[in-house]
Amino acid sequence: MTSTSTSSAYRLPDAPLSGASQPGQEHAFAHQLLEMLVIPAFVLDARCRVMVWNKACARLTGVPAYEVLGTSEHWRSFYDSPRATLADLVIQDRTDEIDQLYPDQPARYQASGMLCAQNWCDMPRAGRRRFLVADASPIFDAAGKLIAVVETLRDLTDEKTAQLALEQLATRDGLTGLANRRCFDDTLQAEWMRALRQQQPLSLLMVDVDNFKAYNDAHGHLGGDECLKRIALAVAGEMRANDLVARYGGEEFAVILPNESLKGAAIVAERIRARVEQLQLPGRRAGCQHVTVSIGAATALPAPNTESSVLVATADAALYRAKHMGRNRISLPLAEQA
Ligand SMILES: Nc1nc2c(ncn2[C@@H]2O[C@H](COP(=O)(O)OP(=O)(O)OP(=O)(O)O)[C@@H](O)[C@H]2O)c(=O)[nH]1
């Protein structure tokens, strides 16, 4: 995201600013300018106390100036629990903490010690989370000593919300709400690289609904859609936080299990198989068995110059064998079964 900075690193002049007739009035003049700014801004002194809290900042946060001026309680306007603002980090020379506190997007360092960072803020008094872009500009005295920091804020909540909605559309499957094929491909590649770096195993399950063509024929396409949604929920219900379940295509799902051995993957696969069976979705004909799935599992310890497609091919081959052996079962790679 590009940033048009609304303030710049500022050195107090030796001579009064234009418009200030007596020495010392330049501060009052600068103060008035900030007050009139339509952009939310506040200024902290060298001890992190609020010197200026302009009207736009009061509107944005729902906190009037008299509540924060002279205090270091400004964080309460933005967060539910104690946390440094960007201006605090600059004043306290804690800029090495910025990436940790603003993980959404790395902070950008600009000329003259200015910093730009963005994050979601709780905004307890405004009553609604907002996505704020902050620019923090240090102010030095004539001797070059840091005496204050101006923080200006831009509310990009609408833009961020639209961006997230678009990302959601681009990565989710419309029918089941699971990750889509594109998201699966990207995640598998990222997890493959991570497993290579960390020398950990990576497991994959391919889950395919049995005799689904016949199910569609018996229950209609809409009935088939409902069935896929129920199965998607059941599979997702077996996942841990770092696993990813995706709709791989038609009536096929894929499950990525980072740092999971084949033995662990086989246990997850069996849980998924049993859970779908327990849904007791009526089968393709009256009196026929319930809807079931077949699952192929594979595990790899990635080595340099190998590709994640090997894992997909191995899991696919195992799935094919599970189908061949009569469906409603899990199958492991041949070498593991020998
Ligand atoms: N309702 C519905 N059906 C789908 C969807 N995507 C794919 N299908 C159907 O899934 C069926 C898959 O059929 P096949 O590939 O022959 O496999 P199968 O009948 O499940 O047989 P096995 O996989 O061998 O057990 C096809 O009839 C597709 O039309 C979908 O989004 N909704």
Automatic annotation (TrEMBL):
UniProt-listed Pfam families: GGDEF, PAS
Task: Write down what this protein is called.
Answer: diguanylate cyclase
Domain GGDEF residues, every copy: 200-335
Gene Ontology cellular-component terms listed: plasma membrane
Name the domain of life.
Bacteria
Provide the PAS domain boundaries: 26-72
Q: Where is this region: Disordered?
A: 1-23
Give GO terms: molecular function aspect only.
diguanylate cyclase activity
Checking InterPro entries in the record gives: Diguanylate_Cyclase, GGDEF_dom, Nucleotide_cyclase, PAS, PAS-assoc_C, PAS-like_dom_sf, PAS_fold, Rev_trsase/Diguanyl_cyclase
**Any idea where the PAC domain is?**
109-168
Q: What is the lineage of its organism?
A: Bacteria, Pseudomonadati, Pseudomonadota, Betaproteobacteria, Burkholderiales
Top-level enzyme category = transferase
List where this protein forms a coiled coil. none
Catalyzed chemical reaction(s): 2 GTP = 3',3'-c-di-GMP + 2 diphosphate
Q: Which NCBIfam families match?
A: GGDEF (TIGR00254)
**EC number, UniProt record:** 2.7.7.65
Q: Name one GO biological process term.
A: negative regulation of bacterial-type flagellum-dependent cell motility
